[in-house]
Amino acid sequence: MQPRPNQRLSSQAMAFVLAGGRGSRLKELTDKRAKPAVYFGGKTRIIDFALSNALNSGIRKMAIATQYKAHSLIRHMQRGWGFFRAERNEYLDILPASQRVDETKWYLGTADAVTQNIDIVDSYDVKYVIILAGDHIYKMDYEIMLRQHAESGADVTIGCLTVPRKEASAFGVMDIDATGRVTAFLEKPKDPPGMPGDPDSTLASMGIYVFDWAFLRDLLIRDAEDANSSHDFGHDLIPDIVRNGKAMAHRFSESCVRSGLEEEPYWRDVGTIDAFWQANIDLTDFIPKLDLYDNTWPIWTYAEIVPPAKFIHDEDGRRGSAISSLVSGDCIVSGSEVRNSLLFTGVRAHSWSALEYAVVLPYVQVNRKAELKNCVIDRGVIIPEGLVVGEDPAEDAKWFRRTEGGVVLITQEMLDRRAAALG
Q1: How many CA atoms lie within 13 A of 79 on its CB side?
Q2: Which end of the chain offers a freer environment for a tag, N or C, measured as fewer CB atoms within 10 Å?
Q3: pLDDT at 2 over 60
Q4: Which of 271, 294, 327 is the last residue in one of the domains?
Q5: Torsion angle of alpha carbons 257, 121, 245, 182, nearest 10°?
Q6: Is 205 known to sit in a ligand binding site?
Q7: Which residues does the UniProt site feature Could play a key role in the communication between the regulatory and the substrate sites point to (predicted)?
Q8: Domains in the chain: how many in total?
């Protein structure tokens, strides 16, 4: 593709989203769905953030590689992201692991997921490919990262977070020189390197990579022939480029999209129950760290056609109310008190019940006199009358999954086992 003068680089790029992972640290939340398909923020799914960033950045060609329990993710793509039109040179392809290359091979690693679809990427006729993880919460203008990549002449540009050095051992981290060139890529080092001019901070990989497609295509073919490779970007391809090519770091702070309310760059890996609960509850703050109300950078999703939320009953002890909470459409708060909580679509909270610091996924029924605190409730769960969660840690742990942070995950299977045991 030959660029036109003043053409945005995003029009010459495609986003390849890696969305095949289970996210096993989310425990039962990913028993039926892949991590990118997990609900977040009242009406969206986690993958909507990466896709919305691409769309808002001007990218109109996207591919989503799926593998683990992909049905709900694919269904969400079909319902919420079906507005791309080929006649406008827009494409969104869903690429399930389908033994296209070999009848015995699923996707062997993140790089192999791209390798098995080289012919499809070729058909897009793009100059740049942005590799994205489909399981993080953030707002980012990829056009800025693309421009840095093109101007620096890098083989790969790596999206990086600035994190305190003492916390960086959980990440793949970059050692860089004064120009921003990556001199070493270290996977979860015990003693992370500092940054030039800032020895107390280090750069951690976001799992976002920009390549020229011609370069990446050749690299993938060579990697596929290497029997010793795990065919993974972070473990194999990126370290190889750092050693033998030119890898440049791109700081998230330079391309993070912020409204006037967000004080610092926001990025979260909601990969544990505690992190998932906290990131959702953070949205109920008076001034949240992530502004979902910024219409200049909308988070696109499947917009269900549902009636507005409804609050009924107005008597002492039985007043439908929600304080410092997010309440989605089709919710009915019927004589229930909701505080510092997030209710997804279709929740029913019945009389004399109370919810506090609760993340309630779609179509949950909270029956009368239930008291729920510091919890995550999976989709479609029916909370029995009078259930109390969040008061007695030992009782909670007996029936439900209670995390080290004190958050209780409730699924219907757990409630069924409890009901059977109690007779």
Answers
A1: 14
A2: C
A3: no
A4: 271
A5: 20
A6: yes
A7: 67, 106
A8: 2
